[in-house]
Amino acid sequence: MRFSTTLLAAAVPLAAYAAPVSKRQIAAIDVTVLQFADVLEQLESQFYAAGLSQFQSSDYTAAGFTASSLAIQQITNIQSNEATHDTALQVSLTDVSTMLATARVVENLGVMAYLGAASLITDPQLLEIAGSILTTEARHQTMLNVLSGTGTAIPSPFDLALTPSEVLAVASPFISGACDLGVPANPTLSITNTGTVSQGTSLTFSSSALNSSVDLSNASCQMLIGGNPISISLPLDQCVVPNTVNGPVAIFITSDNDPLQPDPVNRASANNILAGPAVAFIDASPEVIGQMVRTGTSTAAASNVTTTISPAAAASLASGTDVASAPAATDASSTGTASASASTDASSVGSASNSSSVGSASNSTASSVNDLSSDSSAPFLNTFTGAAGPVNVIGWSNV
């Protein structure tokens, strides 16, 4: 199915912005950005509409909500904010929990997309409109963090911005059919860990770009977090989630360990990205408000949870396989899977106390990463390194 190419300037802002948009010649780059944003609005709107029509009050109660109206009212409010156009999603709406977990990623993707596109828009009036939509998207994200029951409402003082190519890498698994916006998409990256993934877990990945023709001997996994000076760069076979990470993370696979820049303008020219990003939520700091909204998501049971939207996870859910008990991916050579280490046993994860033993990171380097990340006194420790040589950041004070 082809998405409508109705411009966002005509489809969304007129309903969300009091001042009319004057008719004038729009720069080609602005047209591309607005069409791109329109696709995301359609994606979000149809996703929420499908979820609202599929699930009943009893489904929300079964998902642990103290009152089904709490979730239904907020999802309805969010859906009404989005443009209503035809879309196709490759998402399995198997239950309320799955829908809300996916909604967090989709909504956060909207925030990152609008923020990353700000530098591309040349028309001041359109930039103001995009900014007004961005603030609403951010409020949606906060509410969905609360509805998760395990997340931090506002996990970071800064949001992360993605380039259009990076946004499409995340969104493409949700889109079926032709959707040619003239923007090349980065190769899609999937996190293949099954069960609960937490701080201290070794991550495993799959991507068509990670195949036998690609030299992965110096490859790295890079984690971008809003507000960080540079990415957290780790060897691909030692890709362990640091104990300082909380909230949304954009994970890339690169050909070397030269850190990626948080600025999408500079990152757009990076020539070392092999695949990604994959977007994940690491819920390390559940809050009282979330526990009040949803029962059965206590801190002990749900702390340090990562929610991902990988196609592999979606396929597992669609087939009816219990995510917590699904077998881990195995044959890396035949599937294009780049394994950071053995997939973590889901039964041994989910507790903040076992991070040092997770992922079988027994070699000295991986152990070093875990030891450093256990120090909660520094927000981001000595995990920022790169091929440039002098880059060695310990916390924010030395940046």
From TrEMBL:
Residues 327-369 are annotated as: Disordered. Keywords: Signal. The keyword Signal applies. It holds the Pfam family Ferritin_2. The keyword Signal applies. Residues 1-18 form the signal peptide. This is Ferritin-like domain-containing protein. It comes from Gymnopus androsaceus JB14.
